Amino acid sequence: MHVRRVPSLSSSPADRGDAGASLILALLFLLVSSAVVLSLTAAATNDLNNVRKFSTARVYHADLSSAVDVALYDVRYTPATCTTSVPVPFTSADGLVTLDVWCNTPAGTVNLLSTQTRVVDLYACPTTVTSESACAAQPDLTAVATFDDYAPGLHTPLTSPCAVNCGSGMIVSDWKFRL
C-alpha cells in the first residue's frame, strides 16, 4: 500500500511541490480576461454613443438644409418675403425640430439692371433665437443666393423689384454649417 504524505505548513519548501501553482495561473488568466472584456465593453459603449451623436447631428443638418431650401423657394419667387423682421418658419417632418430662417438683402446688393438682380443672405437658427441680428451672429447654417429676376429672352430693364418673373435663375454661392 502506498501512503501519500501531505505537506504541512511547517514542512520545508522542497516538500510542498507545485500543487497550488495552477490555481494562481487560473486566477491570473481570469484577471487578464476580465480586463480585456472590460476594455472591449468600454470601447463598444463609446462607439454606440458616437453613432447616436453622429446620427443626431446628421438629422439636424438635414433639417437645417430643408429649412433653408424652403426659405430659398419663398424668397426666390416672392421677394417680399425677405424681411429682417419676420423669419420663414420650419418644422421637421417628425415635429421635433423647429427652426426659423432669417433673410437679409444687404444694402447695395439689389441691381435691377443686372441679371444678378438680388443677393440674399439666409440664416437658419432654432426658434428660440428671436431676431435676425442674433441669428446672423451665430447661425447654424448660412446660405447666400443670387437671383436673376429676368425671364429668358430680351426684356426691358426692371425699374422696380420684380412682380412677375421673380427668380427665373438662382445661384447658391455659399452654404456653411456651424455645427
What does it look like?
The structure is a single chain. The protein is α+β, with helices and mostly antiparallel strands and 179 residues long. The chain is 37% helix and 21% strand. The chain is built from three helices and five strands; from the N terminus they run ααβββαββ. It has a five-stranded antiparallel β-sheet. Strand 1 and strand 2 form a beta hairpin. The longest helix is centred in the first third of the chain and has 57 residues. The mean pLDDT is 86.
List the helices and strands and how they pair.
Blueprint: H1 13-16, H2 21-77, E1 88-91, E2 98-104, E3 118-126, H3 132-137, E4 141-148, E5 169-177
Antiparallel strand pairs: 1-2, 2-3, 3-4, 4-5
In short:
This protein is an alpha+beta fold and 179 residues long.
Individual helix count: 3
Share in β-strands: 15-25%
- Mean residue pLDDT: 86
Number of domains: 1
Give the C-alpha Rg. 35 Å
Characterize the largest beta sheet: strand count, sense, and whether it forms a barrel: 5 strands, antiparallel
What is the strand arrangement across the widest sheet? Answer: 1-2-3-4-5
Distance between the termini: 84 Å
> What is the β-strand count?
5
Shape: rod-shaped
> Class by helix and strand content?
alpha+beta
What level of helicity do the residues show? 25-40%
Order of helices and strands: HHEEEHEE
* Contiguous uncertain segments of 5+ residues: none
